[in-house]
Design a protein that fits this description.
The structure holds two protein chains of two kinds. Chain A is mainly alpha-helical. Helices cover 83% and strands 0% of the residues of chain A. Chain A is built from eight helices and no strands. In chain A, 46% of the residues are buried. Chain B folds into two domains: 75 residues, no CATH class; 240 residues, no CATH class. Helices cover 63% and strands 6% of the residues of chain B. Chain B is built from 15 helices and five strands. In chain B, helix 3 crosses helix 14 and helix 6 packs antiparallel against helix 7. The longest helix of chain B has 22 residues. The mean pLDDT of chain B is 91. Classes of the chains: A mainly alpha, B mainly alpha.
């Protein structure tokens, strides 16, 4: 029951976050987390808002909490990589990014962040591979979005 | 640089270089409803303090990087000219609107005389200014688009695949424009509009080089003109189609674009002088295209503010031009405008 309610609150939070109303989004995410602190998605979503608002350390903490609940949460690894990138911990970001992309190979953003961090650590060739994968996925998503628009 | 997002190294370098050369600030902005090719809102065009590059929020990787690269190049060209107080774009006045609209009207009459199904007068009248401003937009866009893309290609080798994807998409969208109006737009203007895009695409197909960008391969309506036998080319059937004529005019326009850009040394150090030279190439290309289309008197080189003011007065310009062309006959129609 708590999970169901928490999911509803998270949905509301997502709607606010999409409209860049981060304060409101955060309020819903906080409520959801206190209602069901064992649901990793809440922490991941809150981490996203923290990243958008420049609170990278808090974002990292939330990602770690999500990962302590589910080690295979690809989104948590992906957000962790991003938070670490902003904190300029590039080596750690590469590790997190690698984990994120191995758990979910279709996350264009994760591949791109991995590419940027690989570049930062001097691994240019690996970075190009990651960028290449990111581009392929972005193009697929873009074509799908275009087709959707045309169908509408 | 005011940005909170990961960026690849070459893009970060380009952003920093652009800001340093122009002594200005660039912000990056993600927007869900942004144009697929992004938008540049710059201080050389608008009365603002710094510059913003807007791109679609869903572009998280290299698709966004290319948009940034393209608009940085655009900004450098504009800024280099503005720093010398020479930045001008094609604008219009009440008189030039009259000149352009009258010419379109005369050409439309010639077309209408040949048509079985005539275009309602009301629609014909409404079309005049729409077509006129379409060409204003086109000449302020197409030559610069060719320059920006050539520059990005030569200076940012790591995003070439992304560039190719963006250009192919843009090319298809540009060619789709006006398609629904093909039967009502005077043939001459439909052909000239498509010819400009054809020339740009051919130039980029050669520059990148990427055969798949050639309109005879990329654009469905033009595919049939690939590998035409000489005999076939000479038959009336082909030569009378708008798309074939677009190809013929486009091949001539390609020379106009190709000649000055063929002389640019893309490996030269990217200084403000270098970007100012690119600006001059763009002006020359635009002038030559306008001459080729016999539209030199339609537009004039003016400050961006002049064009913004002209846009503010466009309804007035259109009404007055229509009054001059049609006299008292038009009174009822003007009330509908």
């Amino acid at each position: 029951m708590a999970l169901k309610e928490a999911v509803e609150l998270l949905k509301k939070g997502i709607a606010y976050a999409k409209r860049t109303k981060y304060k409101e989004a955060l309020a819903y995410y906080d409520k959801a987390i206190s209602l069901d602190p064992k649901y990793p998605e809440g922490f991941v979503l809150r981490a996203s808002v923290y990243i958008e608002t420049g609170k990278y350390q808090e974002a990292l903490t939330d990602c770690n909490r999500a990962l302590s609940l589910d080690q295979n949460c690809a989104d948590a690894w992906s957000k962790k990589a991003l938070a670490l990138f902003y904190l300029e911990k590039y080596e750690d970001a590469v590790l997190a990014g690698t984990r994120a992309t191995s758990l979910n190979g279709n996350d264009a953003g994760a591949w791109y962040v991995l590419g940027v961090c690989l570049e930062e650590t001097g691994k240019s060739n690996e970075a190009q591979t990651a960028y290449g994968r990111s581009l392929e996925l972005e193009i697929i998503l873009d074509i799908q979005a275009e087709s959707k628009k045309i169908r509408k | 640089m005011r940005t909170e997002m990961p960026l690849s190294k070459p893009i970060r370098r380009l952003l920093v270089q652009t800001e340093e050369l122009l002594d200005t600030e660039i912000s990056l902005l993600r927007q869900p409803e942004a144009e697929p090719g992004g938008t540049l809102v710059d201080k050389y065009t608008y009365d603002i303090e710094s510059n913003v590059i807007i791109f679609p929020a869903q572009y998280v990787g290299l698709l966004k990087d290319f948009i940034i690269a393209k608009h940085c190049t655009n900004l450098l060209i504009k800024g280099a000219a503005a720093k010398r107080k020479e930045y001008r774009i094609c604008s219009y006045t009440e008189d030039s609107v009259f000149t352009g609209m009258r010419q379109i009207y005369l050409d439309a009459l010639k077309d209408e005389a040949k048509k079985e199904k005539k275009l309602p007068v009301q629609k014909l009248i409404q079309m005049l200014f729409i077509l006129y401003t379409q060409f204003n937009d086109d000449v302020n866009e197409i030559p610069w688009n060719a320059i920006m893309n050539a520059s990005v290609y030569h200076r940012m080798p790591k995003i070439r695949k992304t560039q190719l994807y963006h250009i192919m998409k843009e090319s298809k969208n540009d060619m789709d424009e006006m398609m629904e109006q093909e039967s009502i737009v005077p043939r001459r203007y439909f052909v000239l509009d498509k010819a400009m895009f054809y020339a740009r695409d051919m130039f980029l197909a050669k520059t990148l080089p990427a055969d798949e960008l050639m309109p005879v391969l990329n654009i469905p309506q033009m595919k049939k003109f690939n590998h035409l036998e000489v005999k076939e080319m000479l038959t009336t059937r082909w030569t009378q189609t708008a798309w074939y004529q677009s190809k013929v005019f486009g091949d001539n326009m390609l020379e106009i674009i190709d000649k000055p850009l063929g002389l640019v040394n893309w490996a030269e150090e990217p200084t403000l002088d270098y970007f100012y030279d690119l600006y001059k190439v763009g002006v020359l290309m635009t002038d030559n295209l306008l001459s080729y289309m016999t539209m030199r008197s339609w537009f004039m080189w003016e400050t961006p503010k002049h064009l913004l003011d002209a846009h503010e007065h466009k309804q007035e310009y259109e009404r007055n031009a229509l009054k001059k062309i049609f006299g008292d006959l038009i009174t009822d129609t003007l009330e509908d405008l």
